[in-house]
């Protein structure tokens, strides 16, 4: 894994543990529900992850975008499909989405670079 | 068509014409691009309309939600699938999405009621 | 109850039932979690409802604002306290909050008018 | 004045009075500051009102848009200029701005219709 | 003070001075009003700071969250109370709040670590 | 150019090229439309760039703000005018705009420092 991917993954893991060790049932249930949301159902995992990605993109949440980019990639979303998800996010959310799109593509490049390097 | 669906459709049509009769090339091109966005491509129309729906839901735009609910229904999205799109929107966007979810389900009910009444 | 309060309450109740009769576990759990969030805990109900109100106000969700205005009133929030919640919402969220503030005060007036009329 | 313009203007006036009669200094000062913001300065009133309009449009606040459409019109913004403000709002904010653009153009039409009818 | 807290505090202080040395009365008055908002009144400072925190959290403004986390801590908000503020923010604002929650908890940890180290 | 300006400019340029080399017509057309939006028309470039700046500010997009700050400066916006654009953004968008305002002023300072250093 390259630096940006590694740093993102480690901070995310460490803070999730820190949050969940606190005895707050609503927060814990929310985290569990968040995981359950993207499980296979009437819609398959790939479709749901693309839904999560476009929602994160129009709400302009870089960490959420990075997470769903990684999940989408694992679920088999191709680069052409990624760009069609991006195109929906861009047209719905406007030019303010562009900086997040830049970082999304950069993150995807780094994931793929990591995969190549590890391959 | 029942009243809410009819009123929405007519206002939308009338004002789109009003906007496009203005000689503003950027606005016209944006409208054309918006239409192009949901055409069949690497992702099919049904998937793209679901992406448009979830993006509209988390951005809490009732008219956009109504429009994509109607488009999704034409593209063959089932009620179970609709609710999985809604579940992603709800978990990503939080409880502030609920009022829009209520109106989305009401609009879907009215579309289906209209279909039954016309059937 | 006057008309605006009555209409809001009935639509809310009817659509919540409609949504929950759908067999979608994530949506149902989210609704249950939403209710659990405002229960008495380390913070009391009154404080939590004020938190819910200011969050709804800065996110500019009229229905959420109406709901929390009613809940705050039942929890004993005074008019002076309401306006200090509003002042935080207004300064944090800016002048785009003002139209929602107008409707919040109108809703509160109608709740109190209804209380007086029923008294 | 036609109905939509009249209803908007009256509710706005009535609720502003209701809010300002409450003895809350922060809220009152905010309202005063809001008025001061659009006064002639390094930038003229017309430019400032256009800034207020585009900000309201991308934040998708219909009442704020209506208010600044009326103010811009009084400050001499032409229809071509209005559409260039709209084009910036549309491209920056994306297709979710479109429903608000429809209502903005409808409001402008009604203001001009009122002007013609009164002329 | 550790690095993240120190860097945040210094940049904030330096830029506030830079902004206020500019002769713009509206900006200066807004900054004064912002300070006045959280003073003791019908609601106490602790409650108002929690309102400021939850508003900042749902609007996903990391710097605002950091600031109000520090203010809340000075006003005596306990860790259990912090997590109930977070739970309201999380349920109202949805999973897009999670990355900001991570950074809020990290900032709180660093504040407490700094307090321990200094103690 | 100093570091922050340079880093921003290079990442922006590199990723725009990366995005546009992908064969996605909607994304490419959106980028072209974005450029066209700020061309001289019924409103001049300076006014349009100020509109882009205030829209970016209230939507709290740091990269968009940086970009339009640079464009505004090239179009001849003075420091007093900048602060009147900021004042509209601040009052419309509220105190959550302040952290973005700090970074906007810092970016402007760095642009001017760069200009002085290069002069």
UniProtKB/TrEMBL annotation, chains A, B, C, D, E, F:
The Carboxymuconolactone decarboxylase-like domain, residue ranges: 26-105
Protein name: Alkylhydroperoxidase
UniProt KW keywords: Oxidoreductase, Peroxidase
GO molecular function, one term: peroxiredoxin activity
Cited InterPro entries: AhpD-like (IPR029032), AhpD_core (IPR004675), CMD-like (IPR003779)
Highest taxon in the source lineage: Bacteria
């Amino acid at each position: 894994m390259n630096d940006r991917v590694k740093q993102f993954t480690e901070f995310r893991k460490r803070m999730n543990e820190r949050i969940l060790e606190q005895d707050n049932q609503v927060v814990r249930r929310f985290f569990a529900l968040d995981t359950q949301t993207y499980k296979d159902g009437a819609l398959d995992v790939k479709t749901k992850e693309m839904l999560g990605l476009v929602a994160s993109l129009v709400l302009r949440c870089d960490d959420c975008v990075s997470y769903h980019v990684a999940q989408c990639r694992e679920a088999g979303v191709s680069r052409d499909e990624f760009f069609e998800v991006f195109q929906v996010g861009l047209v719905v959310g406007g030019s303010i989405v562009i900086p997040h799109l830049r970082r999304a593509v950069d993150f995807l490049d780094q994931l793929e670079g990591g995969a190549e390097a590890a391959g």
